[in-house]
Amino acid sequence: MPQVRTTTTTSAAVGLLVGGGGEWAFSGHTGGGAPLTSGKPSTYLLGFQVGIPGGFTVGASGQYNVNYANNSSFAATDAGSGGADGWVGAIGGSYTIDAVSIGLEGIYGRYSVFNSGFTGAGACPAGNCQGHDSIWGVSLNGAYALGPGINLEAQVAYSKYNPDVGTPTSVNPMKYDAVELDAGFAINF
Question: Where residue 14 sits, what CATH number does that domain have?
Answer without folding.
Answer: 2.40.160
